[in-house]
Amino acid sequence: MKPFLTTGKKNKTNIKLGNIKLNVERGERIIVSSLSDLKRKENLEELENFSFIDFSLNTGEFGGSYLFNAVVSDKEKLKYRFIGLSEKKIEDKLKKLKKEGYTERKIGIAHHIFNYLYFFDDDRDGNSPTVQKVIKKTDAEELSFFVNTSYIHTGDFLEDSPVFTTKIRPLDNKVFKIKDFNLIFCCIPDYEDGFGKTKFTKTEIKKFSSNMDLFIKDRVKKKKLVKFKVPNGVYGIYPVINDNYYITGLSDMAEPEELLGHYIKKIY
Q1: 202-210 helix and 212-221 helix, angle to the nearest 10 degrees
Q2: Domain boundaries, the chain
Q3: pLDDT for 68-96, tens place per residue?
């Protein structure tokens, strides 16, 4: 775990933080999703060919969160949405939606036909973010998470951020569904990173293609996947910004409007 510039020992705090142990190596990124969505075979091509270069044109900050992939969660709803179209035209529609970032995230929660997986960029020094579970002392049942991409201790700002208490979905519509009671964080290699040494081999990809449970077992064995029992529902990823109106006392350590990390919690 990287060192923090502050201690996290505020006088009043209603949260307990626990660091999540992931074996993140150089050239790897961290994915968040439901377990059942991660092990869908539709992800295999993305897992094999994942490269942050493909997202670099969209980056404007260090430590950002990005859509890794979207998988069809309900084929019947998909057919109903594109009723009257041939299989070929439906495929063309899906390709168009992919280029647009699967903007279906903006429609009502009951109509989701896609489930989304996201990954997190490294911080400005090229270090992997620190992932933490967040437990409210007044409600130990309410488990949330924080992906810290800064060098400021999470306990010194998270409760002051308006996203900590908001009930609305993220403004950028970064949401994903949990429907198997398992939320996971998983490390995957960037195949175009010149320094990474954990790239998937052709033999591994062939093995995973026969059974995606073998991919999950591989990640667990190498301590690159951790899962948590959480309530089913829709979860949001909220960027936490150093806003001096809400968050005070960080002026010497963080720039105004600097991204401090991402808060992940259930919203529906």
Answers
A1: 120
A2: 15-69+115-239+257-266
A3: 999 988 888 888 888 999 999 999 999 99
